[in-house]
Known about the structure:
By secondary structure, the protein is an alpha/beta fold. The protein has 17 helices and twelve strands. It has a six-stranded parallel beta sheet with strand order 3-2-1-4-5-6, sandwiched between helices. A six-stranded parallel beta sheet has the order 9-8-7-10-11-12, with helices on both faces. The mean pLDDT is 91.
Amino acid sequence: MDLRQYTGKIKSRPIRRTARFIRSASFYVVNFIGVIIVFLLRLLRIVPFPQTFDKTRINKILIVRPDMIGDVVLATPLIKATRDNFPHAHIAMVVSELTKDLVMKNPYLNEVIVTKGIGINNLIKDRGIIKSIRKEKFDLAFVLFSAFSCNLFVFLSGVTHRVGYGDRGSKFLLTKSLSRADLQLDIVHNIDLNLNLLKAMGGKVESRQLFVSVYEESEAKALRFFQEHGLGESDTVVLIHPGSRKAYQRWPADNFSSLADKLIDELKVKMVFLSGPLDGEIVKNVTAKMHNKTIIASGFSLKDTISLIKKCDLYIGHSTGTTHIADALGKTAIMIMGFLKSWDGPGAWGLTHAGSINVFKDTGCKYCIPSECRDYRCLSDITVEEVFKAAKIQIEKIKK
């Protein structure tokens, strides 16, 4: 159970801070008990003692990231780096049903293993998959998400060398645990957090290039969508995704309405709004307040969304999965972000493509804790004019 979803709703700041302290303390308690249990299991020969790492004996590798779209996209540089360091190994990646299409055609993977996702309940449902992985006898696993259930998944799968971040009370489940406590997480990008696991095992990293799979049938569907809505080669097509899974990461809907109208009126672009499964009401609110007509792309699968983003000229969105897809595709893009000095800020999640722009506001906060905040000025203070200026720069690049 993740207590953060509850502590963020507590109005009293002292109580919220006390709740966070209890949460952190519980990690130490769980890990202390876990160390004792695992030691006893090793004495009983139920669990093997840690082995010395020998790169030459690594034949099967597991990369574990069974959570959200953006997280999986940002894991792809580790896939290639792992292949570069272990060119002859069998490399498998554990992902969820939601994200599998991102990596199904990744040329550096031998296998994609689809699980139910994170959480103890899903871990129980995945017991058949765990048993299957155990039979395969993997030598090395990189666990990219520090959730207890992810580290337990790999532990139960019997992987010999298990490398990850054990900050959340699951250090005892890993054979090599890195800590994020000594990292300045507002400037360490998630790509590098992943690559650090490989470096910890003596691996070398030569590239941070992102990757997403592109499918022929989806390319055809995106082309048909453009044709059906009269979007031609001479048009500058701007795709805006105003939604985000986390409400506190969203720029105000009224701002998107004003921005879209301004782009259409002054720069003569064609506007498409991307509406995902959770974004319907948000897109309705945005488009209802516009004086220009626009196009709404809804009901697209993840495969089709990738191709739609690929076909547009400029992408604008929040720190969310589709924005990281645009980054991986090398699209001209703009990410609207808050939380400058936090784990959710541009230093940790910003766009990496050289031609991209991260738009954010420094409100002077010494450090940002989203659950402590009640006004999110870092997002609401970003003006329409600031994002429009960034869009104008990007569109001028495109036209050149």
